[in-house]
Every structure is written in structure tokens, then in C-alpha cells.
Fold this sequence. Notes:
Jelly Rolls; Arc Repressor Mutant, subunit A; 3-stranded antiparallel β-sheet
Amino acid sequence: MDALANLKSIFPGLEPELLDHISESAAIKEAKEGDILISTGQYIRSTMLLLDGLIKVYREDDEGNEFLMYYLEPGEACALSILCAARQEKSQILAKAVKDSTLIMVPVEQTELWMNQYKSWYRYVVGTYRNRFEELLQTLDSIAFKSLDERLVFYLKRHIDINGPRIELSHQQIAEELNSSREVISRLLKKLEQRGLVSLHRNVIEIPNPERLSKLV
């Protein structure tokens, strides 16, 4: 349980007594990069809190095309998995480790009790729902009202916010998440490079001036 030693620093808003309960009732799950943590159609029995790493939450159609919903960073929980677990419904999303990750898995029965027992947990869960709802609205706006080049800039900014100005993704991976083709994404990235907004390398995109790129969003 050494991984739980830094709970207070990762979840500073939670009460000490609640952190003790998490330490007592939670299980630690280690995930390697690429591991699928939640699959479409499965029942979710535990609330998933991220201690370390990065998790991608997304949907996938029948042809394997992905739609990125949001990323989980340390200190965050998956809002959709909490909802599915509380309502005992099958998952409609997938979650995959983008980096090697350490997670806390708390039985849903415990988290339901905490909603009434601890105001800090209630605020944490409500805040999780609110943040994800706002992020999904931004994503929806980018799809409904923005051109593909604007969506690409929005996509790059999201990665900058999480990973910094070095984005280790292939053009094919970006195309899949934006539901486009590699050729189109490569062409748009080349235009951004010509403007000095990005620097392209093999499977790596570097952003020399993130603030300048962010102004385009």
C-alpha cells in the first residue's frame, strides 16, 4: 500500500478520515501503457481514481474509429464510470492507459456510502461531473462549429495542457481521434509548421510557442 502514502497530496480536498477509509478499502491496480481498463459493455464494480500516469477515455464505433472524450490525470476520477457503477449499467465507453499508470479501485458500495458521510467526497464527485461536462461541451463545440484545422489546433492544445509542448503521437493516431485521414492531418500539420507553430518529427510534434498556438483556439 506504499502507493497510497501520498493520497493527501494527490487528493488535497478530501478529509483525513475519508483518506483513511480509502486506504483501508481500496485496491491498487498497476496498468501498463496500452492496457484497456474499461471496455464497452462491461459492468463497472469499482470507482477508478488515478494516482499516477495518464488514462484516455473514449468511444469506439463498429469499425474501430475512436472518439476522444477526455483524459484522466493524477487526482482525477472517471465521471462516466462512477455514473455507470452507481446505476449498475453497462459501460458505454472505453478507458486505456496512455502511460504506465497506478490506480485506486474503490468498491462502488463504499463510494455510495461516502456521498452521505463526507461532504468532501460529495463535492469531489459533483466537481468531477461538472468538469467533464464542461470539457465535453468544448469538444462538442469544436465538432459542431469548427473546421477541421480549428479542431486540430484545439486537439493539440488539449495535449499541451496535459503533456507539455512535446506530443508523441503519429499523424495516423491523430487522424483516428479526429475521424479524418492521415493525409489530411499531415497536410494541416505541414501548414502549421510553415507558420512556425509546430515542428514535425517522426511520431513527435513539438510546439515551440504554446501560447501562440493557444491564441488560435
